[in-house]
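Quick one, tokens below. Sequence please?
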């Protein structure tokens, strides 16, 4: 659903920019339609980006998700593998004691 929203949002921005570039507002009297399209498109794009996994990784990055140690790297012994308990994302952390 949000993939479709992203497509609609980027199409709106693109059409808005094209209308601005083509300056059709003078011929067809479109007033602020290009600006409204671009602004609405950007808002929609932000919403759809926030609603999809971008938000998850953002919450992960700022440390709101809890990671648990699941193993060690087979080649580099100082590398520990951590897995996110919420979204299952794995990351490797170098530990040097
Ligand atoms: Zn996470």
């Amino acid at each position: 659903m949000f993939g479709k929203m992203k497509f609609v949002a980027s199409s709106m921005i693109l059409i808005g920019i094209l209308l601005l570039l083509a300056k059709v507002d003078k011929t067809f009297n479109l007033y602020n339609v290009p600006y409204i399209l671009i602004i609405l498109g950007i808002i929609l794009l932000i919403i759809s980006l926030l609603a999809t996994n971008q938000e998850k990784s953002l919450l992960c990055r700022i440390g709101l998700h809890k990671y648990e140690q699941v193993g060690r790297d087979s080649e580099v012994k100082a590398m520990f593998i951590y897995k996110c308990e919420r979204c299952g994302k794995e990351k490797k952390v170098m530990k040097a004691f």
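The pocket of zinc ion is lined by residues 56, 60, 65, 84, 86-87, 89 (CB under 6 Å). The chain has a mean pLDDT of 82.
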